[in-house]
Design brief:
5-stranded mixed beta sheet, binds pyridoxal-5'-phosphate, 13 helices
């Protein structure tokens, strides 16, 4: 689509055409597993829905436009998309991942791919230079999230990709952009090779679908990933594609509201005696506040904080909220709250990257912010204090 359009316009129209056969303005849910061939091998572009489906194509076109890529591939979940990317590697190859990452990503690296011969190395280092120092001759892929889940650390994607370019053998840089979304930052434009999304989150936006995506610019990578997508078959159904596509159309306005609510909540939490450490990229207390301002359009809708009184108090707090629902996942219109060490990141508990048990993660929704703050205030008052 024409480059002159702003993100908000592209979110609605990017890669989209009214349905060619009926003029339907919204891409229909093509609920068909197979497509008629006029003669053997002669068809209208679709033969079998694992390989391709028009509703999926519409979603993939939209994702490619929004991430400023040349291809996008939709998957049945964020983890299926991660799996497809890791299948680009072969035994003996090394993945270097920043150790502050989604528990499921740690689990697939450590318990699926490492036993199959991939070398998995985790680094605590967040700066571009220190990540580069950890690269070895075997490193073929660098895996980062920014902001990270759940500690909300940032990686300077442009500096990292510039530093990688100086290496003799440049590993692929893969950025999980689930927390930021392409509205806040576009990793490909900053030099990344692949962008991963759990479309379950902000892109879908309504907590009603599981999905994933990979976006990139390199045609060869695109073909190899499309081969994996078709050969392995972890594809989303047409209804799921429709739901993500519908969610994307309101992404920009939702993200603005998520971010303004999260910022107000960060300001409310910062002076609280129960908050030992606040983690929100859009708040001046964040150690990478400057980077957040240059790399991201706004601070986003996710924040976390460490409860001063530890894990029992953290659990009591998340059970005391009434408007914030105690649940895993994030990025929907409704506010969610959780304790990562006991919920989303339980698979890291065995490892050196275990999350602080007193850490509470908030996915701030688009409700009226005063109602959200009132809910947190009553939870501080009613939850156990030790
Ligand atoms: N990446 C991040 C940052 C996530 O938070 C998640 C899920 O929570 C995933 C990837 C995996 O996505 P899915 O649950 O859609 O498989």
């Amino acid at each position: 689509m024409d480059d002159k359009f702003a993100f908000e316009t592209l979110a609605v129209h990017g890669g989209q055409e009214p349905d060619p056969s009926t003029g339907a303005v919204m891409t229909p849910i093509y609920q068909s597993s197979t497509f008629k061939q006029d003669r053997v091998g002669v068809h209208k572009g679709y033969e079998y829905a694992r390989t391709g489906n028009p509703t999926r194509t519409a979603l993939e076109r939209s994702l490619a436009v929004l991430e400023d890529g040349t291809f996008a591939l939709a998957f049945a979940s964020g983890m299926a998309a991660t799996d497809a990317i890791l299948r680009l590697l072969v035994p003996g190859d090394e993945v270097l991942a920043v150790d502050d990452l989604y528990g499921g990503t740690y689990r697939i690296l450590k318990h699926i791919f490492e036993p199959m011969g991939l070398k998995v190395r985790l680094t605590q280092d967040l700066t571009a230079d220190s990540i580069i120092d950890s690269v070895t001759g075997a490193t073929r892929m660098i895996w980062v999230e920014s902001p990270t889940n759940p500690r909300m650390n940032l990686i300077d994607i442009a500096s990292l990709s510039r530093a990688l370019a100086k290496l003799e053998q440049r590993p692929l840089l893969c950025v999980d952009n689930t927390f930021a979304t392409p509205y806040l930052q576009q990793p490909l434009a900053l030099g990344a090779d692949l962008v991963l999304h759990s479309t379950t989150k902000y892109l879908g936006g309504h907590s009603d679908v599981i999905g994933g995506a990979v976006i990139g610019r390199d045609a060869d990578l695109g073909q190899r990933l499309a081969f994996v997508q078709n050969a392995v078959g972890a594809v989303p159904g047409p209804m799921d594609c429709f739901l993500v596509l519908r969610g994307i159309k309101t992404l920009a306005i939702r993200m603005d509201r998520h971010a303004s609510n999260a910022k107000a909540i960060a300001e409310y939490l910062a002076p609280k005696s129960q908050v030992a450490e606040l983690r929100y990229p859009g708040h001046a207390t964040h150690p990478q506040f400057g980077l957040a301002q240059s790399q991201m359009r706004n601070g986003g809708g996710m924040l976390s904080f460490i409860h001063e009184l530890g894990d029992t108090a953290a659990r009591s707090f998340v059970e005391a909220t009434k408007l914030f629902t105690l649940a895993e996942s994030l990025g929907g219109v409704e506010s969610l709250i959780e304790v990562p060490a006991a919920m989303t990141h339980v698979s890291t508990s065995e490892s050196s990257i275990a999350v602080d048990p007193g850490l509470i993660r908030l996915s701030v929704g688009i409700e009226a912010v005063d109602d959200l703050i009132e809910d947190l205030e009553q939870a501080f008052k009613t939850s156990v204090s030790r």
